[in-house]
Every structure is written in C-alpha cells, then in structure tokens.
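In the current project phase, our protein records have gained a structure token line. A sample record follows, to show the layout:
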Amino acid sequence: MTGRIRVRKRIRVRRRVRAVGAVAAAALLAGTVGTASAAYAEGGGSSSGGSSRGGSRGGDGQGLTVDGRFAPASAFVPSAAVTYDQALVPAGGWIQVQQKADRHGTTVTVKVKGLGPHHAFGMHVHEKACGVDPKAAGMHYQHVKDPKLVNPDNEVWLDLTTDGSGSAKATAHHTWGLPEGKANSVVLHREQGGAGERVGCFTVPFGNFRTGVK
C-alpha cells in the first residue's frame, strides 16, 4: 500500500509541474508575442489595454479598439505595429486606433505615445496590412476609388503633431463606413498631406466587428 501511495503522489507532482510549466510557457509567449491587443464591442463600447476580446450590447453603434507597440520590420517576433524609421517612430512607441460606427457614419480616433517629439506626422487609413516593405500597406483607402480624389473627404486622414513627450491624438469622421476587408492599416508618413515617406505602420482590421457589420 505504501508503495502505491508514493507512486500516486509522484504522478500528481509530475502533473502539477507540467501544468505550471505550461502556464509559464504561455505567459512567456504572451509577453514576447503580445505586441498588440484588440477588443471588439457592440453598442459603441470598447475596451483596451488587454488581450481579451469581448462585447456589450446596447445602443445603435459598434466599435473596434486595437493597440500595439512598434517594433522594427526586421524583428524576430513580428508585430502588428512596424517602424521603418526609429528616429521618428522608436521601437516601443505605442499606438491605439478606435473605430466607432453607427447610423451617422464612422469615426476613427488614433492616439500615440513615445514617438518623435514635436513632429508633424501624416497618417492615413490604407487598404492592406503592414509588412516588412513599407509599400506592403498599399494605397489609401478611398470611399470612391479615384486617383484624383486624394483628399480628407474621400479618405481617412489622421494627421497629428506630437508634443514634447511624443504623444498626440487625432480624429476623423465620415458619413460613410469602412467595409470589412477593404481597409486594413494606418500608415504614418514623415510629413503631413496626401503623400510622403512611410515611417511607420499599424495593422488594423477596420470594419471587422464581432457582429459582422459591413
């Protein structure tokens, strides 16, 4: 009997060690890979600052909030937020993008921290996700596709100027929406306006709400 009890205890201890090891590995992976988090909500609500995904019902609006930390395009662990110029967009800089949609249209808000201080950045919503190549994000998302209509009315422009700590906020509102799968990132440009060198990019699944709104 004594021998059997000891064997069972050893089995239990081994199971505990394996469980603790699995939790530690998951925590380590989350700490390494978790450079971006997302939250989806109905009723215009949103949450951020964590890796949980959830929603709350109520009202007539829907929204999405994503945030992340910039990492070099060559980073071993890819990030949803990519810097192509660490002088202006340092690795570790933070970005958050919110999209709220209701019967009145779509509002996109962006917040940044830890970027180059006192710099006037251009920023637009782009068609494709970010990549190692700054051009991977493709062209600006346009409500009406027309190369002659590169302007804040037909596109989502979020130009902003950082303060002394590299923080800034910008908001754009349009009466039209951002269809799921058609707009997938925001790109930071060296200067404000309709073009310019791309210095950073953040992948954002615009229109990708849990309820499947288009």
User: Anything to note?
Assistant: The longest strand covers residues 94-102.
